[in-house]
Amino acid sequence: KTVYGANVIVFEGILAFANKELLKLLDMKVFVDTDSDIRLVRRLQRDIMERGRDIVGVIKQYNKFVKPAFEQYIEPTVQVADIVVPRGGENFVALDLIVQHVHSQLEKVRAALASAHQGQPLPKTLSVLENTPQVRGMHTIIRNKDTTRDEFIFYSKRLMRLLIEHALSFLPLKSVTVETPQGTMYEGKRFHRQRITGVSILRAGETMEQALTAVCKDIRLGKILIQTNHDTGEPELPSLRLPKEISEDYVILMDSTV
C-alpha cells in the first residue's frame, strides 16, 4: 500500500476536454489524433467481429451519427490541447517526450515541497515539551557519547514518560464531582471518552509503548510500518495492524528520533 495518492492521474475520454472547470485542474492536456480511415477500420473490425453487426449497418451509423458527432464535439477540442499526438499510440517519440515532461514536472513539485517549510513559523498545533533543567539534564546524558547503554535506556525512558504525560494533557476532560474517603466532595476532571489507543510507527515508535502503558491502564496498541520504495523514493505501507473500532478512540501516534 502506498502512503500518499498517485503522483500522476490520467484522465481519459473522448469528451475529456468538454468540461471547462475540469480543464483548470489538468496540468497537461494531450489530444491523441488518428487518421479518419484508421478510425473507421477499427470500428468496422470491432462491430463486425466482436458485436456481430453487418457492414452496411456499421457504415450507416458511422456516417449518420459517429462522424458528425466527432466533427461537432470532439475535433474542436484540439484547440485547448497542449500537445497533439499524431498517429495515436504508435508515436513512440511523442510518448517519450510526454513521459520526460511528466518526470520533470514531478521533480519541480518535489523540490518545492522539500523547501516549502523553510523560513515558515512552526504550526500553532505543535506543542514542544518545556525545556526545564530536568529535561535538559536528561538530554545531556542521552546525547553524551560517553553515556553507557544502561544510562541511555534509563534516561530515555524517563524522558519518554514525561513526553507521554505532556501529550495526555491535551485530551479533552469533563468536570466531575466525586466523594473522597473522608466524605468530602471533590471537583475534578475525567476523560470525556474512556478509551485511548496508542499506535507506534515501527520500529522507533515501539520504544515509547512502555511509557504509554505505564500511565494508561489497559490501553490498546497498534503498529504501523512505513518503508521507502527504493525505486520510486515514495513511502509505502507494508504493514498496518490497528485495533478494531479505532475511529472513535483518542489515538496517540508514537515515533521517536534521537
TrEMBL record:
It catalyses: cytidine + ATP = CMP + ADP + H(+); uridine + ATP = UMP + ADP + H(+). Keywords: ATP-binding, Kinase, Nucleotide-binding, Transferase. Residues 131-258 form the Phosphoribosyltransferase domain. GO terms for biological process: UMP salvage. Its EC number is 2.7.1.48. Residues 2-93 form the Phosphoribulokinase/uridine kinase domain. The keyword Nucleotide-binding applies. Pfam families: PRK, UPRTase. Pathway: Pyrimidine metabolism; UMP biosynthesis via salvage pathway; UMP from uridine: step 1/1. GO terms for molecular function: ATP binding; uridine kinase activity. PANTHER family: URIDINE KINASE. Belongs to the uridine kinase family. This is uridine/cytidine kinase. It comes from Pygoscelis adeliae.
